[in-house]
Write a structure and sequence with these properties.
Mean pLDDT: 86
Order of helices and strands: EHEHEHEHEHEEHEEHEEHEHHHH
Helix content: 25-40%
Number of strands: 12
Structural class: alpha/beta
Number of helices: 12
Strand content: 15-25%
Low-confidence stretches: 325-358
Strand order of the largest sheet: 3-2-1-4-5-6-10
Distance between the termini: 36 Å
Largest sheet: 7 strands, parallel
Oligomer: single chain
């Protein structure tokens, strides 16, 4: 059961992060604590799955962080959101491929029905701003042109349909005359970095490079993605909390529009190892290209990405090969990688010299 209202200390901004144990949510929570906010993190996963970055930050700044294990579909949200200035709504089920078939109901419950409850509670609690995590997947096939926020969405997967519905649901609430809450929806483009989900391409590529396991490549590898480093995405997310009320939808794209083959080449260069590739048919819902039009983010948020793809992959590789620096999620780094961490410590000297700080 959730606690009643959790007050912030005088002068502290009080915010709520849903999905606080997730990839982006954990980094966001840590950044918010570092800037001095009082944070309530909500996640239905057990607290032991919270990345070490959060527990370390929370321990050092206690009592400014409160972690609540709860399901947004069933918990009493309004007491938790009371007196919160901002809700960062990052909870949701990601992934294009698993959204086809029997799992679709879980996507609907988590991405749509839970969002309905968050917006209802935010309205009743008079939360000033909800920043909701959306996805570039809502654009669907866009050719080779950058996707602007004004483009007509053409979602090509059940997952993308739920994210577009989530956006519309939030803006429908915000448009009510009796709703004090404004909404900014951030369309993230392929976020990567330390702690990335193990099913994502950059993680799988780096894992294949350091373990020698084959890399499953869906399609010919010429698909292009606008890769966005996680800390850049976090910066945009925090900034979105303070932008003007009519900001609406904003792209968060890293400017590293590269092919999957480019990612493979970078991983091989960083590790000095050749990657064995297992070629598979391209999956339904996978679009050939994603590319963000960055102008709205630049204008409204004053935001530009700062980490290029090679540097970001270096940081992610370090998190996989040096367990002490890795944000451990779930049952630990070994399970996350699918092999023992000590096997990853013998990399080319050049790669070690090149590590940027995280």
């Amino acid at each position: 059961m959730l606690e009643p209202t959790i007050p912030a200390a005088a002068g502290q901004r009080r915010v709520v992060v849903t999905g606080a144990a997730g990839f982006i949510g954990s980094r966001l929570t840590t950044a918010l604590l570092r800037e001095g906010s009082s944070v309530v993190g909500i996640d239905r996963r057990h607290p032991v799955t919270v990345p070490t970055a959060i527990t370390d930050a929370a321990r050092g700044s206690s009592p400014r962080y409160h972690h609540m294990r709860a399901d947004l579909l069933t918990c009493a949200l309004e007491p938790v959101l009371q007196d919160a200035e901002v809700v960062f709504h990052l909870a949701g089920i990601p992934g294009v491929r698993p959204s086809w078939g029997r799992q679709f109901g879980e996507y609907v419950h988590t991405n749509i029905l839970a969002t309905q409850r968050v917006m209802e509670a935010a309205t009743r609690a008079s939360v000033r701003r909800v920043v909701v995590a959306s996805s570039s997947s809502v654009y669907g096939p866009s050719g080779d042109q950058p996707s602007a926020e004004t483009a007509l969405p053409q979602p090509a997967s059940p997952y993308a349909v739920t994210k577009l519905a989530e956006e519309h649901l939030c803006f429908a609430h915000a448009a009510r005359s009796d709703c004090p809450t404004s909404v900014v929806a951030l369309r993230y483009f392929t976020v990567y970095g330390p702690g990335q989900r193990s099913d994502m391409f950059i993680h799988r590529t780096l894992r294949a490079a350091v373990t020698g396991q084959p890399l499953r490549l869906y399609g010919d590898g010429r698909q292009r993605r606008d890769f966005t480093y996680v800390d850049d995405a976090v910066t945009a997310t925090i900034t979105a909390a303070g932008t003007r009320d009519d900001s609406g939808i904003v792209n968060v794209g890293g400017g590293s529009n590269a092919s999957l083959r480019d990612v493979i080449d970078i991983a091989q260069s960083l590790t000095g190892r050749e990657i064995r590739i297992e070629h598979l048919t391209m999956c339904p819902g996978d679009v050939p290209t994603t590319l963000a039009d960055p102008r709205r983010a630049q204008r409204l948020l004053g935001w530009r990405p700062s980490v290029d793809l090679r540097s970001g992959m270096l940081r992610q590789l370090r998190s996989l090969t040096e367990p002490r620096s890795a944000p451990v999620v779930g049952n630990g780094l070994a399970e996350h990688l699918g092999t023992a961490p000590h096997r990853f410590l013998h990399l080319p000297q050049e790669a070690h010299r090149s590590w940027p700080s995280t």
